[in-house]
Amino acid sequence: MAKLKYLFQPVRIGAMEVKNRIVMPAMDPGFGIDEEGCITPQLTEFLVERARSQPSMIIAGSAQVHPLGLPPVMNQVHLWDEMVLPSLQEMVKSVHRYDVKFGAQINHGGLTHLPQPSVCPSVIPEMIQAGLPVREVSKEEIREYVKAFGVAAERCVRAGFDFVEIHAAHSYLINEFLTPRYNRRTDEYGGSFDNRIRFLLEVIHAVREEVGEEIPVGVRLNGDDFIGEGGWNLADLCRLAPILEKERVNYLNITVGASYYGSLHVNIAPMYEDQGAFVHFSEEVKKHVSIPVITVGRIKNPIMADKIIMEGKADLVAMGRAQLADPDMVDKARKGETTEIRLCLAECLGCIEGILRQGEASCAVNPRVGREYLIEDIEGEKKAAARKVLVAGAGCAGLETARRAAFAGHMVILCESRGWIGGQLRLAAKMPKREEIGDILPWYERQLNKLGVEIRLNTTVNEDLLRQISTDVLVIATGSLPEVPLGFIEGLDNIKDVELLMVDELLEEERLTGENILVIGGDQIGLQVADYLSESGKKIYVVEKGAHFAEKMASSDRHYLMGRIISKGVKRCKRVQRIEILPMDEVWMVNGSGRERLPEIDTIVLAGDRRPNIFLAEMAERKGIETHVVGDAKGFAGRDQGTVSAAIAAGYDVGRQI
After folding, report:
1. Is 172 part of the annotated catalytic residue set?
2. Distance CA 31, CA 74 (A)
3. Helix (H) or strand (E) holding 127
4. Contacts of 552 by beta carbon, 8 Å cutoff, 6+ apart
5. Radius of gyration over alpha carbons of the chain, in Å?
6. CATH number for the segment(s) 11-358
7. Average pLDDT over residues 311-333
8. Which listed CATH number (1.10.645.10, 3.50.50.60, 3.40.50.880, 2.40.110.10) goes with 484-608?
């Protein structure tokens, strides 16, 4: 067991001492706040589940100090209204049942109020040209907002919070005042560095005046906006940091990126970004201040976090998505049980993409997120009658079904026709910069062994096996199979020397290809395969029937993947009507612009259409066996098909219901 020597040392933040160095940063999951801006049990239980593990600090999601700062895509606490106080007090009381310091993050969203009429330090011409209703903040409004921050901070203290964090990052209003791109004012709040930081300093003074000296006050700041020319950067931060220390700020929480304007992919980075990629910002800031500095960004493993503290690159480590994936992470790390931690995959479909698409966050590997108040999971609690459960297929859906059914006390046999577990996930982990997606597989293997699941590899479930096992419940998790899109490809009989490969055989058998490759299918699998093949310098064409590439991927992932394949010269075409193969292996593409020959194609990879693999269902129905179909075997509709999130969630729910 790994001993984490530095991560579990106490540290003092102002008048407050915390017992370790792991922080759960403010995350806005999009749920648990009603239309009046009050906390509901859904958010409280989400936080309580993580408080049980006892990180040093939990910072509640961003709470708005003024109605004009409220993002329209999700509700946040209405801190301008006294009505929210009782619900805040109830939440604080629940979290305080555990030895955790609980803080409130106060914010004005600024431009995130768009597309509703919004305020900004300056009128930005390009926004006006785009038809966005933005106006310049008046001096009277600045005074109003400064006062609102103070009132909100005082309300948080009355609610029982241990500390207050001022949000001055992620292109919200305070960050907009700091950043020249947004702040083009010519009065005392714009222009020079000293003028641009004035609003933040006035907010700090107002907050400190309301909360006194005993309540720690922190500030969350960007190390870099990553918005290009006119953005806030590390030099600005290092100039500001000692000023804030003199203003009696007790800690600095260093983050990066903007919530819009083109750098959300950095703010909530996917697996294409290196783990710990932004630690150097906190490391540099620490050279300029003596107050504690928090770092954040793609830090999912406590071993890495411990090393960051050991090397003096930060005083505390914020691990947000890591605690979404495994709410018991801190306790497991404390006990040295690091291999028991269910690691975040950073594939972003659950967390940020869940908010962007459905308005609520979830987690690809933890389907309980947002449902903690509904689902009681008590380890060792047995069903009234344990049943024999046979799970066919050890991909994501099958692994999770087996784990959850065994967790409930059932006797589970997991059969896999291949010689290894993981299904499509193991193949996906072969893609460049996506190896991390396979991190969940060793965890599943350990959990299944721990729960007594019998795993049979190289075993196909058939009628003889069903008769032999005499199972009570059959779960079909056999996934999907690639198929030839016959209506899309014409002239298959004309193929002579062009090799035709299914994407599964290409990856599973590591098949060799020619130098000029046509990939049919431009969703997540097709683009990732194009990236994989282009690594060796091959010329790649990708064609897609639909209007968009990689629709199933999170936008953050898609941003990086598209950048990679574009930089390597992969040719892409969408809205393709059909592919024609003529004699002499001529390959033509037909779209709305006409016909175009794709020269010298020697390999075609089919990475698009797939069909559910449900051959077992009819057999089970004849035998009268209780049967459940999960994952891609069931055939998800639209964007859910072929995603880790959907497969694990389906397996979890079926395993729980058996």
Report:
1. yes
2. 8
3. helix 125-129
4. 523, 524, 639, 640, 641, 642, 643
5. 27
6. 3.20.20.70
7. 97
8. 3.50.50.60
Mean pLDDT rounded to a whole number for the chain:
93
**Residue among 172, 182, 261, 560 flagged as catalytic:** 172
Q: Domain limits of the chain?
A: 11-358, 388-481+611-657, 484-608
Taking the whole predicted model, whether its pTM rises above 0.70 is answered as yes
In DSSP notation, 537-576 reads T-EEEEE-SSSSS-TTS-HHHHHHHHHHHHHTT-EEE-SE
Assign a CATH topology to domain 388-481+611-657: Rossmann fold (3.40.50)
The letter for the amino acid at 238 is C
**Nearest CA among 234, 141, 233, 109 for reference residue 179:** 233
Residues pairing with 253 in the sheet = 220, 294
CA distances from 142 to 62, 105, 110, 200 (A): 20, 19, 12, 11
Average pLDDT over residues 141-153: 98
Q: Is the pLDDT of residue 639 over 60?
A: no
The secondary structure of 230-264 as a DSSP string is T---HHHHHHHHHHHHHTT--EEEEE--BSSTT-H
